[in-house]
Write a structure and sequence with these properties.
The chain has 278 residues and is an alpha/beta fold. The strands form three sheets. It has a five-stranded mixed sheet with strand order 4-5-6-7-8.
Length: 278
C-alpha cells in the first residue's frame, strides 16, 4: 500500500479540494494519506473525513507548521493531531498572522513604489483557491504578475519583506504538537539542511522533541534518504514519506514532479507506530 503523508489542499496553497485529493489518491493507489496544509486544518472541517471514508482511504489528521531553529526556518508535520486542540489552533493562528502580514507589507511597499496595486483593494480581495498559492500572490496575478513558484518568492526578496515576529522555537512547537496527541515529524530536511549538517541537525531536532523524519521525499538524494533512515533506525523514530503535492501549483520544479503518491513508497518501508489513523 502506498502512503503519502504530505499533501496540500486549496485551504492553504494547493489547487485541489479535499474531495479531489482523495479521488486522485485512490486512482494512484495511495491507501494512507495526510493532508498537511500550511498552518491550517480547514480541510478537515470541509469534507475530508467523509471523502476519505467513501474511498476507503485511511486518513491521518495532520498540519504543516513553521518553526524556528538554530538551522533557520524549518517545517514540522503534526501527524495524528487533534484538529480541535485549542493550543494547536492558537499556534496556527499565530503563524498565519506572520505570513499574512508579509503579504500585506509586500502589497503596501509595491503600491508606494508606483506599481499598479492597491493595499485597500487587496484587503477586500478574495483569492481564487483553484489557482493555488496564497492571497498576496493570487492578487498580484490578477494584476499581471507571475504566480509560479518559486519565481513568485522573488517579489518578497526584492522588496525586503520579512516576518515582523519570529516563529515559535522548535521545542515549543514540538511540545504543542505532543499536547495535541500527535507525533512531530521533521519535514523534507534535505530541502533546508545541507548533507554536511544533516547528522548534527537531526540530533538537534531529536533532543528538541522531533519524533521522526520525512525520509522519503521527491527531491531527497539517495544519500540524504540513507542518512535520515539510519538516524531513525538508531533511535526507533517514525519514518514517513510525503509528496508535498500542491496540485497544479509548484507541480514541477527542476524536472521533479510533486504529485500525489510521490516518491511512491510502500508502507512496509515506514515506521508509523504511535501515529493515530482515522
Amino acid at each position: 500500500m502506498l502512503v503519502d503523508l504530505h499533501i496540500h489542499s486549496y485551504y492553504s496553497d494547493g489547487t485541489y479540494s479535499p474531495q479531489e485529493i482523495t479521488e486522485r489518491a485512490y486512482k494512484a493507489g495511495v491507501g494512507i494519506i495526510a493532508v498537511s496544509d500550511h498552518n491550517t486544518v480547514e480541510a478537515y472541517q470541509n469534507g475530508l473525513y467523509e471523502s476519505a471514508k467513501e474511498k476507503g482511504i485511511q486518513l491521518i489528521p495532520s498540519v504543516e507548521i513553521d518553526a524556528d531553529s538554530k538551522y533557520g526556518g524549518i517545517h514540522i508535520l503534526a501527524l495524528g493531531c487533534d484538529t480541535h486542540n485549542k493550543e494547536l489552533l492558537e499556534l496556527l493562528d499565530y503563524n498565519r498572522d506572520i505570513m499574512d502580514k508579509m503579504s500585506d507589507d509586500l502589497i503596501e511597499k509595491m503600491e508606494k513604489n508606483g506599481e499598479n496595486v492597491s493595499i485597500s483593494e487587496y484587503k477586500k480581495y478574495e483569492r481564487n483557491r483553484k489557482r493555488g498559492g496564497w492571497k498576496g500572490i493570487d492578487y498580484l496575478f490578477t494584476k499581471g504578475w507571475r504566480n509560479d513558484y518559486p519565481y513568485c518568492m522573488t517579489y518578497y526578496k526584492n522588496y525586503g519583506i520579512k516576518g515582523y515576529k519570529k516563529f515559535k522555537d522548535i521545542s515549543d512547537v514540538c511540545r504543542i504538537i505532543h499536547n495535541a496527541g500527535a507525533k512531530a515529524i521533521l519535514a523534507h530536511p534535505g530541502e533546508r539542511i545541507s548533507v554536511q549538517d544533516m547528522p548534527n541537525a537531526l540530533e538537534y531536532a531529536r533532543i528538541n522533541g522531533i519524533d521522526g523524519v520525512e525520509c522519503y521525499y521527491p527531491t531527497h538524494s539517495e544519500e540524504i534518504t540513507r542518512i535520515c533512515l539510519d538516524f531513525c533506525k538508531k533511535y526507533n523514530m517514525a519514518v514517513t514519506s510525503g509528496s508535498d503535492c500542491h496540485g497544479d501549483f509548484a507541480r514541477n520544479m527542476n524536472g521533479v514532479e510533486f504529485i500525489i503518491g510521490a516518491p511512491f513508497t510502500d508502507e512496509s518501508k515506514f515506521n508509523l507506530s504511535g501515529i493515530a489513523r482515522m
